[in-house]
Each structure stands twice: as structure tokens, then as C-alpha cells.
Amino acid sequence: MIDDKFFSDGKSLRQFLDSKKISNTVFTNGCFDILHIGHVSYLEEAKELGEFLIVGLNSDQSVKALKGSDRPFNSERNRAKVLCALESVDAVVIFNEETPEKLVQELRPQMMVKGGDYKKETVAGAEFVESYGGKFISLSFIDGVSTTSLASKLVNRSFLSFLPNNEISKEGQKKVNKLLEQARAGCISSLSRLLTLVESQPEVRLHISNFLIKQKPSLKSFVVGFTGPPGAGKSTVINALIGPWCDAGRRVGVLAVDPSSHFTGGAILGDRIRMQSHSDNQRVFIRSLGSRGALGGISESTAISVEILKYVGFDRILVETVGVGQSEIDILSFSDCVVVVFVPESGDLIQMMKSGLNEIADLFVINKSDRPGAELFKNRLEEHLLDETKKRFVVSTVAESGKGLGEVWNLIEEILLHSKSGQNSLARLTLLGQETSFQSVSATLHQRWKQWMVTPEGGKKLHSYQTGEISLSELTDFFFQYSN
To answer: Could you point out which of 64, 78, 125, 288 has its C-alpha 20 to 30 Å from the C-alpha of 165?
Structure first.
């Protein structure tokens, strides 16, 4: 019965009408993407105007052209089937054009009907119908009911259901606190779970930073940051330094920030692979963190991950950045010592100094110094540092053979000896609280912005901004009015 009402084109429907001698036809058209009470009432009213109600249905191609690439929500076949199931509808025919004018010319209905929000002058086909004595009638719509408004409500509810609370629940706080307690007691799986949570959930980062600032700062935990261009051998240098610290009775935590997968957000390279020789050492914990597109060579979760490692009792925390550049010097904000690793082929020295490395580095390591040009590179670097007031060190190494790494280890320990870790920790935790609070607020605002953008009002205001009718400041004011 339903399939009997469906026609693939105007020609086949015209032949059917002629064969059945049906002349008193009423025609209307639309996308009918999400069928609602407004549609049902409108079609019932249209049916009463004649013998046979025809619905011209915009094809998927036509809907995309009219409504945008994210429409239709339902395929043309499914939309047609739903319309055919209505008792008031006698035939459904699909058209590919943006307007039904060609279809109207094929069917020549006695009456053309549209909703009350359309004017005859703007309706394609209305003038043609009246040219042979037919009528155009405008029917009323139910106020406040439309596919666009219904879609906005559905999308808003979808966003709301996934909107992070950004204030962790009491039950969630208990679970996180228990993980902190277990990690401090030496449970590595609990520590891993904590770091996974802070990578993915801003509200957990905020809770932990608030928790840690109430604790007594550790006086024995120090952070060593390793940065430098990709391929310089940072991981190899770190891997070689872990052993001496373990031999000295230290617990060593390594956080290696790697590029993130576009699909999972997780770390792609996985520096743990390059440090497998320490995987069975109970004094060593190695974790890869995805950068998740963050600038500064580190991820949003790196700083709080460092503080967690301090809290659970690691003495030396080694942080490797994803790379180095003019904006990638954030590692200074939480490190007691910054080691910059170069290779002789690292490029123009002056450009590297402009990137801020001369300001953040405590120790320069020229790795792979058995390559040509290493001595010249070292001499130029030391010459450049002569004018610096702060004492900085330059060491040549070949990390794979261990050459020079003993000197690197001793220099790092000397620098840490003069570092005020406890005082620095308190200041860093205060700054960390500010940063995690900002991240949490940003996440909420981002979600609310997406909610607003799918409302008719939000879309209209954005269009006004894009066409220059309102300023960015005005757009922001409208957004905050919506948020409140």
C-alpha cells in the first residue's frame, strides 16, 4: 500500500493520474526531513481541498543544496516512506532541482498549497498554476514548530548530555582521592589510571591541583626538562641517565610528550619503546603523553602529571618535549633544570638563540658529537654564551656509546643542588591551579558556544558578524547573554 503511493518522477505519476482519470489534484512540496505535528496538520488540511494530494519531496541532493552539507538527517527514501504512511497523502514524488517548478509543469495540479510563512510571489510554480486557471492557497502553520527548531533542540540535548560538568562529583572525588592514595603507596596501575584521567578530563585536573596545593611541598623531588629539535636524541640521552639515578637510590619518573594521533588523541611515537631497558626496574616509571595539538612542546596535562609524580614520591622527574621552536619553551615553567639537546646539524645557531633557548637552558648538550662539524658548533655556541650573565654549561656527548653522559649527569645534579624545589613547588601549584581552572572554564564555554551555534539565534548572529553587520565584541556580548 505504501509503495503504491511512491513515484520516482513526475512522468510516471502523470501517467498514473491520466489512467485513473484523476483531475482534482492538490500539490505541495518540501523537505519533510523530520516529520512533526506541524507537517501532519498541514497535510491533513491540504487534503481537504481536493481529491488527490501530491507531495513533491526534495531529493537528498536538493536538500543539501538548500539546507547545507549536514542535511538531510533522513534519506529521501526514508522520508518518502514516512510520508506515504500518512492517510492524507495520496502520492509522493521526488525531484532533484532546488525548486519544484519543473515538476509542477509536468503534473499541472488544480491547486498548489504552501505553508503560511510563504508568499505567492516567492513560490516557484505558483504563477504557472494560476496561468491555466488553477489556484494557489497559503495554509497556516502551527507556531513554533519547524524541522530547524526541532533539530536545534535535539542537537542541544545531545550536547548537554555529553557536556562535562567541570566540577567533579563527590563520588568522583572519592575515586580520584583513592587512586592518589594507592599511587602514593606504590601502586603503578593506580598511577597510570590517574595520568589517563588528567589527560582526558579537565575537571579531574582541577580537582587534583586543588588537592595537591593543600599538601606539604616535596623538598626532594626535582624536575629536569629535556627539549630540542626532533631527532637530536633526547630519548637516548634520558635513557642513559636513568641508570645512574637509580644507582644513587633515586626513584625516576619519565614523562615523554609525543605527537598525538588525530584519531585517538594518544601519543603516536611512544617513547617507552625507546626506554625498554628500564621496564622491569621498580624504581622507574615511564609514560608517554599525547601533545593533543598543544603548543609549547608540552600538553595541557603535563604540569599536573609532574605534580602527581612528585606527590607519589619520585625524586627525579624527567620531562621530554615533543620538539622545540619559538613558542615551545613552556617547559621552563615547571622545571628546576632545563637541558637543551642539539646535534651538529641543528641549523643556524643565531635562529635557535632567537627562539628563546638561550634564556631557558641551564645545560646545552651537543649529542652525536662524533659527526663532522661538532667541534665548530660547540665553539660557536660557547662564544655566543660569553655575554650571558647566567652560568650555562655546554657538553659534547655520544649518547649511544655513553660518551660525555657522566659529565651531563654531574652537572644536572650540581644545578639541582642550588635549586629551591620546595619554594618553587608551592608557586608552581598556585599557577597550576589558575591554569587548570582556566582550562575547565574554557571547556565549558566551548561546549556552550557549540550549543549556541546550532540555535537559529546563534546562527543568525554569526552570519551578521561574518557579513560585517555586527562586531566581534557585539557577537561576544550576545553569546554571554545566551550563556547566562
So the answer is: 288
Return the residue matching grid coordinates 556552550: 448
- The pLDDT value recorded for residue 117 is 62
Determine how many CB atoms are found less than 10 A away from the CB of residue 255. Answer: 26
Angle at 294 between CA 291 and CA 296, to 5 degrees: 100
* CA contacts within 13 A on the Cβ side of 162: 9
pLDDT recorded at residue 330: 67
Ordered domains of the chain (ranges, CATH): 3-145 (3.40.50.620), 218-411 (3.40.50.300), 437-483 (no CATH)
Beta carbons within 10 angstroms of residue 213's beta carbon: 16
Strands 52-58, 91-95: parallel, antiparallel or unpaired by DSSP? Answer: parallel
Pairing state between β 284-290 and 52-58: unpaired
Mean pLDDT by runs of 10 across the 484 residues of the chain is 82 93 93 86 91 94 80 88 93 92 94 79 88 89 60 48 56 91 92 88 82 76 87 89 93 80 39 63 86 49 88 92 58 83 72 60 90 88 76 90 94 85 52 59 74 84 84 82 68
Paired residues of 224 in beta bridges? 318, 337
Calculate Rg over the CA atoms of the chain.
34
Query: Hey, what's the cell of 435?
Result: 591554569
> What pLDDT score was predicted for residue 290?
67
pTM over 0.90: no
Confidence (pLDDT) at 271: 45
Supply the pLDDT for residue 357.
63
Residue 182: what pLDDT?
94
